[in-house]
Amino acid sequence: MHIDPYILAFSSITVLVTIWMGFRAARQSKTAHDFFVAGRSVSVGWNASAISGEYLSAASFMGIAGMVMSSGYDALWYPVCYACGYLFLLLFIAGPLRRFGAYTIPDFAEGRYDSPIFRKIAVIFVLFIGFFYTMPQMKGAGTTLAYIFPGLPYWAGVVLVGVVITLNVALGGMKGITLVQAFQYWAKMFAISVPVFVLMSVYGHYGKQVASSAPSGSRVQYSATANWGQTATIATDAGRKPLPETAPADGKWLNPFGPLTTKAAKAAAKQGLIVNEKALALLYTYSLIIALVCGTAGLPHILVRFYTNPDGVAAKRTTMWVMILIGVFYMFPPVFGAIGRNLLPELYTGTGAKGTDKIVLELPRILNERYGPLGSILSGITCAGAFAAFMSTFSGLLVSMTGALAHDVYGKMLRPGSTPQARMKAFKFCAVAVGVVAILLGMQVEQFQINFMVGQAFAIAAASYFPLLFMSTWWRGMTMKGAAAGMLGGGLLALAGISLTSFSDLKWIDLGNFWSFHPVLRILCEQPAIWTVPLAIGLMVVVSKVTSREVPSDIRMKMLVLHAPEKLGLKQEYIAQEAH
Amino acid sequence: MQAPAKPDIHSESFLHEMMRRQLRLSIACAATFTIVLLGLPLANYFLPELMAKQVFGFTLTWLFLGIGFFPLVWAIAWVFIRRSIAMEETEVQAVTTVRGSDRAKPESIAAV
Fold first, then answer.
1. Helix or strand holding residue B16 (H, E)
2. Does residue A580 belong to any structural domain of this protein?
3. Residue of B9, B54, B106 with shortest CB distance to A568
4. CB burial of residue A510 (10 Å; 0-12, 13-18, 19+)
């Protein structure tokens, strides 16, 4: 096994620093909640960096680049929608939720409807969506470790990282400390941008890279310019390496409605069906967009951070900065994908951990040909960034899923009168349980793309949490039963559709033939948002109207708290009333 | 001359008006954004040659989706934040310009 020392060094340092910071902070036990409760305010800059850091998972860091390389233009919807979902959050949900004071969605569910039962339903979804979110992080972990230790099987990487983080969380570390998360953002930003700038200065800028896949008339000649003024052409074929057969053709890669969105249509065409490929691809695209934009608005762990701001105005400004910070970040991964297509097309022939998902790790190494260890150093930096990404996201998810399980299921349902020591034990036990399940699931998903899996998580959130938050905030006619019906209906159906397509792709069930003959069904199952989101909203409206007598009696006060400016003190009034 | 009536913050009309204003602003911003977001795939579908025109090496549609979309989102967010903060200030002022015990008592809520 030839292990590159720079890569190993940078990665190890990142892992150790992250764990060390987590334990130090655990001893001081300053979580986001603690900052708020202590009355101290975290500045907009710190908070924005922290939210951005928490937001950028393995999907953002590795997955987007991998998908742009494998699928081209269509993959660009992912980063745009990841950023834009935040806008929907800002426009419709952030302000009211902050005023209401709910830290998590289960908190909101219970508070808005005065219903502990509904809280439990919301907790179930925290777990579902959480697991779908942990799987791509595990893929990122397995891929990264397989890259650093060539020859290490994918599953071993998953197990190793999974065990380390699970133990860390169980032993009390890795809480969502503002400082740590803020640092993580800048580390990831550095790790994604510096290699891009170096690669672009050597091999040509972003536009040139994309243009290599343009029709030959407009292809740009390549030349590599070293810093010392020497020029040399890299290869003969317009400056890029030849594409293997498994790679998508230029036209398909560069233009809309490419491999990502036309899978089902192509399978149908192979069976002889007459299909309008582009129209089906358009359907897929719209369903994907809805899933990603609405799903962002329902991410469980993001909302907590709004409360570390002293007031609503600061919270809004923080959100603005978050959008800038993550928007700037998201311009970079596609560049990796574009350069990778031209200069490292071998990855097209790999599958799973050896496929395009590792382009961010592997690509900087090509600089070694010309500039000695610079390539390894930059590759080590991107590996460090990848570790930062999936470690922090996985641990954040583990903490919130364990918290929900331990607090709600154990603390409230099974043993309501338990002592703090018992609860601690329950927390540790749950952390291990959740971690083990996440590891086992992560081991199964090597063949799926990181980014794709995150999109699935978003699709479920889009059909469950988003309608819940949106309708609960803006329509006073909602009842608990209506909200539950919509959330369960939309969420479970989305989950069912996604599972069907994933299981059949894993060959656990044999539906390949069926999908070929029913491309529209395939698209609607793989990307269910376009029908499950309206369905969830519709169910919410209908069932709420039917049970309209169960609208909470203090609904006007609740809506006031959600919408009136904080300065009017309605929240304090509300709390005082609740106490009676 | 009667002083202008101060809004009763616990009244139905206050809540209704406030939510209507807020929703209108949010929907206006969301609509701007959504039209562009959902319009781009349509443009890709109906105007493929135009969207494939090369600009700095990119295709027009790649340049927009890969880079240009973000500043648009930032601009919309900026406008929304400024307007919603201003709206809140106005609401607070309208209610608190006269100090005193004009705030309705909790009993009125039971009449909902």
1. helix B12-46
2. no
3. B9
4. exposed
Question: Does B71 fall in a domain?
Answer: yes
Comparing A170 with A38, the larger pLDDT belongs to A170
Residues within 8 A of A (CB atoms), B 21-80 only: 22-23, 26, 29-30, 33, 37-38, 41-42, 44-45, 48, 51-52, 54-59, 61-63, 65-67, 69-71, 73-74, 76-78, 80
Scan for tokens 């089906």, then name that residue: A280
Q: A360: part of which helix (H) or strand (E)? A: helix A359-362
Closest residue of A to B94, CA-based? A568
Share of chain A above pLDDT 90, in %: 36
Ordered DSSP codes for A376-439: HHHHHHHHHHHHHHHHHHHHHHHHHHHHIIIIIIIIIII-TT--HHHHHHHHHHHHHHHHHHHH
State both tokens at A214. Answer: 């343009």
Q: Is A464 within a domain?
A: yes
User: Residue A200's closest CA among A75, A66, A340, A65?
Assistant: A340
Q: From its phi and psi, is residue A507 left (phi > 0), alpha (psi between -120 and 50) or beta?
A: left
Range of the domain at B39: 27-92
In chain B, the N- to C-terminal Cα span, in Å, equals 32
More confident position, A3 or B35: B35
Q: Is A503 inside a domain boundary?
A: yes
- How far off is chain B from A180, nearest CA to CA, in Å? 26
What is the CA A272 to chain-centroid distance, rounded? 37
Q: How confident is the model at residue A96 (pLDDT cuts 50, 70, 90)?
A: confident
Task: Round to whole Å and give the CA distance between A321 and A319.
Answer: 5
The pLDDT score that the predictor gives to residue A27 is 65
Instruction: Evaluate whether residue A398 is within a structural domain.
Output: yes
- 3-class secondary structure per residue, A428-444: HHHHHHHHHHHHHHHHH
Count of structural domains, chain A:
1
Average pLDDT over residues A530-550: 95
Residue B84, domain member (yes or no): yes
| Phi and psi based region of residue A478 (left: phi greater than 0; alpha: psi -120 to 50; beta: remaining) | beta
B111 occurs within a structural domain: no
Choose the closest CB to A331 out of B18, B70, B80. Answer: B70
Kindly report the backbone phi and psi dihedral angles of residue A507, in degrees, each rounded to the nearest multiple of 5, phi listed first. Answer: 65, 25
Task: Tell whether the model's pLDDT for residue A413 goes beyond 70.
Answer: no
State pTM to two decimals.
0.87
**Structural domain of A9:** 5-571
Instruction: Label each residue of A260-306 as H, E or C.
Output: CCCHHHHHHHHCCCCCCHHHHHHHHHHHHHHHHHHHHCCCCCCHHHH
Please state the domain count of chain B. Answer: 1
Flag the least confident range among A49-63, A418-432, A464-478.
A418-432
Domain CATH for A305: 1.20.1730.10
Lowest mean pLDDT among A10-24, A281-295, A371-385, B91-105: B91-105
Out of A83, A91, A317, closest to residue B30 by CB: A91
CB A418 within 8 A of CB A426: yes
Task: Report whether pLDDT(B112) > 50.
Answer: no
Q: Would you place residue A177 in the very low, low, confident or very high pLDDT band (cuts 50, 70, 90)?
A: low
Nearest to B60 by CA among A82, A71, A211: A211
Give the tens place of pLDDT for each residue, A239-272: 688 888 888 988 889 999 999 998 888 888 888 8
Instruction: Assign B21 a pLDDT band (cuts: 50, 70, 90).
Output: very high
Residue B32 lies in a domain: yes
